[in-house]
Design goal:
Methane Monooxygenase Hydroxylase, Chain G, domain 1, alpha+beta, Beta Polymerase, domain 2, 9 helices, five-stranded mixed sheet
Length: 323
């Protein structure tokens, strides 16, 4: 059987979840033959290969005339459980999967390694309402993309919450650990933002009627998905700017605290300067020195030291140098 044998009023959706090489051969080479470059890019979803760098392919859309090849990144929050404590724990459970989509005139093929909630949701929706398949591959694709994009919404909110947590942390107790967490958040935001921007451009191309396989009637749905991506990208960009601001605030707070410590140490050193002079003076080993054989010499020197130190402390305190 091949894709050409599908009736004009029917469509086929094939979901290749962690497929074997034999299954890939049957679907992507026999049933619906695709270009060898499509196969190469699609296999990145299954893990590292000798012909790539072990990383997922960046999101893109390619038009091969009779079909479109789309790569999207699905964000999955695997540790979103009831025992999560704050945005930090929620963000640690994030993972990404590459979702490959082949869209033909009457064929939709999804290819991925890990379980993707958006694909599972579409499977359930089609089971409940088989009429969805009659709308065609471009309609199913819009539902799939909409669910993929919706998964980024709570992530953008968690970024905002995490920024607030770190902002409070730098004023309570700034430390190297806080700085490490700020840098980790900034790196994660940069990665998610890059995916969102790539996918925003892909959906924009699908929405503006650039591809013949996406009907103008369905393009309005893609515009709605595009609007969601624009809003999410703006949220993440705003959180990223705030992260950079709190990083600068961290350095400012750390510098201010260091200045306070240096001020206290300077005051202490200044107070001990005359004390050190007096003790050094009377610590010299000369035989003929005044007051050496005076009975009250030691208490007198101690009294002078206390008076000098107390006077200097009072003067510094009155001028506000110890505030």
């Amino acid at each position: 059987m091949s894709a050409s044998s599908i009736a004009d009023d029917a469509m086929v959706w094939i979901n290749l979840a962690s497929p074997t090489p034999e299954e890939e051969q049957d679907i992507l080479a026999t049933f619906f033959p695709v270009h060898e470059l499509v196969l190469s890019d699609a296999r990145r979803a299954l893990g590292a290969h000798d012909d790539d760098d072990g990383q997922f392919h960046h999101p893109k859309v390619d038009d091969f005339g009779s079909y479109l090849f789309i790569i999207m990144h699905a964000i999955v929050q695997r540790s979103a459980s009831g025992d999560s404590h704050g945005a930090a724990d929620a963000l640690r459970g994030l993972s990404e999967s590459q979702l490959n989509i082949v869209v033909g005139e009457r064929v939709l093929i999804t290819h991925h390694a890990n379980d993707i909630p958006a694909v599972s949701a579409l499977v359930n929706a089609c089971d409940r309402n088989p009429h969805l398949l009659s709308r065609g591959p471009d309609y199913l694709l819009h539902i799939l993309l909409d669910d993929l994009v919706d998964a980024y919404v709570p992530i953008a909110v968690q970024f905002e919450d995490r920024v607030d947590e770190l902002e409070h942390a730098i004023f309570r107790r700034p430390s190297n650990l806080v700085l490490v967490r700020i840098l980790e958040l900034k790196r994660l935001m940069q990665r998610i933002r890059k995916d969102v921007v790539y996918q925003r451009e892909i959906v924009n191309r699908l929405a503006r009627g650039e591809f013949a396989l996406i009907s103008l009637h369905e393009s309005m749905y893609y515009r709605n998905v595009y609007d969601h991506l624009v809003r999410i990208a703006d949220q993440i960009e705003s959180s990223r700017d705030l992260t950079i601001s709190i990083m600068e605030a961290y350095f400012s707070v750390s510098s201010a605290r260091l200045n306070e410590v240096m001020k206290v140490l300077t005051v202490i050193s200044t107070i001990f300067l005359p004390i050190t002079f007096l003790t050094s003076l009377y610590g010299m080993n000369f035989e003929f020195m005044p007051e050496l054989h005076w009975t009250w010499a030691y208490p007198a020197v101690l009294s002078i030291i206390v008076v000098v130190a107390g006077s200097m402390y009072y003067m510094f305190r009155r001028r506000g140098w110890l505030d």
